[in-house]
Description:
By secondary structure, the protein is of the alpha+beta class. 37% of the residues lie in helices and 23% in strands. It folds into two domains: 13-166, Transposase IS200-like (Alpha-Beta Plaits), CATH 3.30.70; 173-280, no CATH class. The relative contact order is 0.10.
Amino acid sequence: MSRKNREFSQADFYHVTSRTNDKIRVFENKLGRKIMLMVLQDAKAKFHFILANFCVMPTHIHLLIQPREGTSLSKIMQWIKTNSAKSWNRIHGSIDHLWGDRYFARTVRTPQEFDFVMNYIDQNPVTVGLAPTPADWKASGAYYIARNIPDLVDFNLTERTNYVKLLSPIPPAVSRLIPHKQLAYITQYYGAYAEAIDHLYQAVKIIPKICDMETVPKPHVYLHYFTGTADYFISEYDGNDTMWGKVRFNVYHPNETQYRKFSLSNLKSNQHIELDLSWRS
């Protein structure tokens, strides 16, 4: 029985995944990926659509795409799959079936979903060890945006400035400071170099290194952890696990001189703890 044609709204972005036939590693080498990049470029010239991100993996491709008026996702994908197969077979003198029967498409309707898909596509080559960072994988939107290469991927200057930050790995000091659940949430919905992480990274640079004194002057900057029942204001940090700071259960007085030593590991072991990323000076 034939499948019913899928209908898509032209107002939405779609996260599209298409796998090679029998998961053959067609795009494992540079030639295979080059064929796919050329076909994507030709598709942009032929059809009216926005390509916000993409990634060519050895056995599949990811696209974050928005068809515009006068075309449809099904027409675009049929053309991409047909012409990439023709190019591959022509170069290799074969008649192989390059792609699996169907592609998969999920509607992306909200900014949060959009950011999540962008990050998911970016992390594909990093997750399987093909590249140390998303921008190092040449067959990806991350590579094009990071290097300000126009035409294939659609972005403006403001989007690029914010997005390039997302392509960097999380600094080790930052990953140590943020509670695990909070870090997982930020990276899932906002990317590995979200504004909050960038803000914290800048704060870490100016937090005084820990000293042996139990009393210190009023801090220029401090981190604020809270558990729901207590607030911890950290003003010194050794870069690893030891912190000096104040704790309050109701009202905080910045001029108090009673500081306590904290173990960062013990502090973060509290399952309810969160770090206020809007650190204060």
